[in-house]
Amino acid sequence: MSDMRTPLRKVRGLGSAKDGTGHFWRIRLSSIALIPLSFFLLGWILSLDGAGYDEVRAALAEPLIALAASLFILISLDHMQLGMQIIIEDYVHGGGTKVALIMLNIFFAVAVGAASVFAILKIAFGG
Amino acid sequence: MSHSPATRPQARPMSPHLTIYRWPATMLMSILHRITGGALYFGTLLIVWWLIAAATSEQYFNFVNGIFGSWLGRLVLFGYTWALMHHLLGGIRHLVWDTGHGLEKDTSTQLAWATLAGSVLLTVLIWAGYFWLGA
Description:
heterodimer, A: 78% helix, elongated, B: 135 residues, mainly alpha, 4 helices
């Protein structure tokens, strides 16, 4: 007896993508979070009213703005990485190319996220 | 393997599909949802670029701000605003559909047109606010 698990136990919750509804749920969850965050950030940018370097840095150093900006960018990156993966899976069918593009897509989101967080933290902590 | 006349492979006429039929509003908004999503993917780089500029130096920040303030920069930001509003409203439409509501033919068509009208209206309002604030 090599496996105690029944066949049903092995497939329950998993679709053809092997990760169940995880992708679907994460794209919905991030979309809901992005609705208020988008309007908050838009309002903030409008309220800057063409402000200069010092005023923008002072505003970004405020905890609420720094947190909202970080959340907006990080959740946007998660959401767009998920969305772009769907587009890749829809149009690219070559095994190697598809996997390479999906990897590149994730690396891109993580790299942009790291750079953004570094920029915000540098401003917020007065670098 | 022999085929009977009825099953013999032959060049059959294909449906003209996208190039012939009138596009239903729902189809157009579905395509726009994907296009705006793809555009926002790269549009995020605009925000990140601006943030990194603010963290780099005053000179570099003014350089990036100058590009964003040019007519071409504003045109790109206007397009970004519309793409964001269209994708956001289209996303709300999808969330409504997820609950099982609004899927009837007439309702979904109305929701499709409302997405387009709402996105244009919000974009114009945002930019009217921007110019009204005196930028």
